[in-house]
Write a structure and sequence with these properties.
The chain has 9 helices and 15 strands. With about 325 residues, it is an alpha+beta fold. The longest helix is centred in the middle third of the chain and has 27 residues. A 7-stranded mixed beta sheet has the order 1-2-9-6-11-4-3. Strands 5-10-7-8 form a 4-stranded antiparallel beta sheet, with no helix packed on it. Strands 12-15 form a two-stranded antiparallel sheet. Helix content is about 35%, strand content about 25%. Bound molecules: N-oxalylglycine and nickel (II) ion.
C-alpha cells in the first residue's frame, strides 16, 4: 500500500472538483498525502537539499558521534543487551523560525532557507484553503483560527507560528535498537515535509499496520496535526507516524509546520458540531467531540506527552 499522491496543479483546471474530492478523501481516510506539481521551483528544492546536507556535514556530523543516542547505543552493545534505547531518537535537528539563530557556515544557507520557508508558508495556506472548502468552511477560516486576532492579542503574539525543522537521520549500526524518531502524532496544524529522495524510513500507522511513506523526488508530503483534528471536530484525524533508523544512508528530512499562535483559542468549528435531535422531547443537542483551549496550554502538555496517545492531552486541556 502507498500513500496517495495528488497532482496539485489540477486544482486550477477542469479537474478541480475531482481533485478537491481526492484531497478530501486523503484528509478523512489517510491524514497523510503527497503533493506533486505543487509549484515550488525545482531549482530552489535542489538548493535546499544541497545547503541542508552541507550544513549537517560542516556543523553537526562530528558532534553526532558524541550524541546521547550514540552513547546509549554503545552501552547496549557493550552489555550485549537485546534491549532498545528508550527516550532518545537517532536524529539530528536544527530548527529555523523567524527569530532564532540559524546555521551560518554554509554561505547560501540563509537566503535559500528564507526563500524556501516563504514558498512553503504560502503552500500551507493554499492547502488550508482547500481544507476550508472541503469542510464547508468560509475561505480563510483555518488561517484566521490559527492567527490570534482577538482584541486582547498582545503585540507580536497574534501570528500563526511557522517553523522549519531540518533533520538528518545518520546511518545507524544497530537500527533495531533505536528509533529514528519515536511514534507520535503532530501537535500543530498543517505539516509539510520535504523528505529524502532515496533513503526511506518514515512510516504511518494505517488501520493498525505501519506503512512506508515512499520517497518521491521533489514531492511535498502533507499531514494534519492535532489542531486540525480539533477544528474539524474529528473529521480529519492526526495520524501516528515514526521514523526508522537505517543502517545505510543519511536520511534528510525537512518538516515545516503551520501552527496556531500560542495565544489562539482552538475549538471545533461551530458548523461542524453535530446536531443531535432528540425526537422524544424535540430538543436539539450539540455534540462537540473536543474542548476549546488555548494552544499554548496544549503545547505545555504536548512537550511532556509527545510520544503518548493524544486523548489524555485533550482531557488535560479540558480541565484547564
Ligand atoms: C516530525 C516528523 C518526520 C521526518 O518532525 O514530527 O514526524 O521524516 N518528522 O523527519
Ligand atoms: Ni511528526
Amino acid at each position: 500500500m502507498a500513500i496517495p499522491v495528488i497532482d496539485f496543479s489540477k486544482l486550477n483546471g477542469d479537474e478541480r472538483a475531482k481533485t478537491l474530492a481526492q484531497i478530501a478523501t486523503c484528509c478523512e481516510e489517510w491524514g497523510f498525502f503527497q503533493l506533486v506539481n505543487h509549484g515550488i521551483p525545482v531549482e530552489l528544492l535542489e538548493k535546499v537539499k544541497r545547503v541542508s546536507s552541507e550544513s549537517f556535514k560542516k556543523e553537526r556530523e562530528e558532534k553526532f558521534n558524541k550524541s546521547t543516542a550514540e552513547k546509549f547505543l554503545n552501552e547496549l552493545e557493550k552489555n550485549k543487551s537485546n534491549g532498545k534505547v528508550e527516550n532518545v531518537d537517532w536524529e539530528d535537528v536544527f530548527l529555523l523560525t523567524d527569530d532564532n539563530e540559524w546555521p551560518s557556515h554554509v554561505p547560501q544557507f540563509r537566503e535559500t532557507m528564507k526563500e524556501y520557508r516563504s514558498e512553503l508558508k504560502n503552500l500551507a495556506e493554499r492547502v488550508m484553503e482547500v481544507m476550508d472548502e472541503n469542510l464547508g468552511l468560509q475561505k480563510g477560516y483555518i488561517k484566521k483560527a490559527f492567527n490570534n486576532i482577538g482584541e486582547e492579542a498582545e503585540e507580536g503574539s497574534e501570528n500563526a507560528f511557522f517553523g522549519t525543522k531540518v533533520s538528518h537521520y545518520p546511518p545507524c549500526p544497530n537500527p533495531e535498537m533505536v528509533n529514528g524518531l519515536r511514534a507520535h502524532t503532530d501537535a500543530g496544524g498543517v505539516i509539510l515535509l520535504f523528505q529524502d529522495d532515496q533513503v526511506d524510513g518514515l512510516q504511518i500507522l494505517k488501520d493498525g499496520v505501519w506503512i512506508d511513506v515512499q520517497p518521491i523526488q521533489n514531492a511535498i508530503v502533507i499531514n494534519t496535526g492535532d489542531q486540525i483534528e480539533v477544528l474539524s471536530n474529528g473529521k480529519y484525524k492526526s495520524i501516528w507516524h515514526r521514523v526508522l533508523a537505517k543502517e545505510n544512508g543519511n536520511r534528510r528530512s525537512i518538516a515545516s509546520f503551520y501552527n496556531p499562535s500560542y495565544k489562539a483559542t482552538i475549538a471545533p468549528a461551530p458548523q461542524l458540531i453535530v446536531e443531535n435531535h432528540n425526537k422524544e422531547d424535540n430538543k436539539v443537542e450539540l455534540i462537540s467531540n473536543y474542548p476549546a483551549f488555548v494552544f499554548g496550554d496544549y503545547m505545555n502538555v504536548y512537550t511532556e506527552q509527545k510520544f503518548l496517545p493524544k486523548e489524555p492531552r485533550f482531557q488535560a486541556v479540558r480541565a484547564m
